[in-house]
Amino acid sequence: MEFLARYPSVCEVGVGRRPEVARALAERGVAVTATDVHERSVPEGVRFVRDDAVAASERADPGDAYRAAAVYALDCPPDLHAPLLGLARRVDADLLFTTLGGDPPAVDARPLTLDGETLYVARERRSSGE
């Protein structure tokens, strides 16, 4: 979470029923948008947009929900890695994700070990997160 907190704005793809990271980032002053294919309840301070990130990656305009300094996904399955990388490129954002269990990343990514977890950085445009 500390690594993500360096960004002024983020979009969490696939927030699901576990918005803890989005909540913590919003509490630290990060502008957070969360997306999911299903309607989800999110904490105060987190904007929610129901959308399919794979479909967004294929649209001419992915949408404002993804326009952030960083796009991230937690427990991201391998079949979403490439579409999310394409999405991040389209909106000129960094892309960071964790994987499910021992799944390796399906795209070129730099691993960072943070708090005992591996965060993959698949696109890092800004060195300062701004």
TrEMBL record:
One Pfam family hit: UPF0146
Family, per entry: Belongs to the UPF0146 family.
Superkingdom of this protein's organism: Archaea
Gene3D superfamilies: Vaccinia Virus protein VP39
InterPro entries noted in UniProt: SAM-dependent_MTases_sf (IPR029063), UPF0146 (IPR005353)
Source taxonomy: Archaea, Methanobacteriati, Methanobacteriota, Stenosarchaea group, Halobacteria
UniProt source species: Candidatus Halobonum tyrrellensis G22
Protein name: UPF0146 protein K933_13319
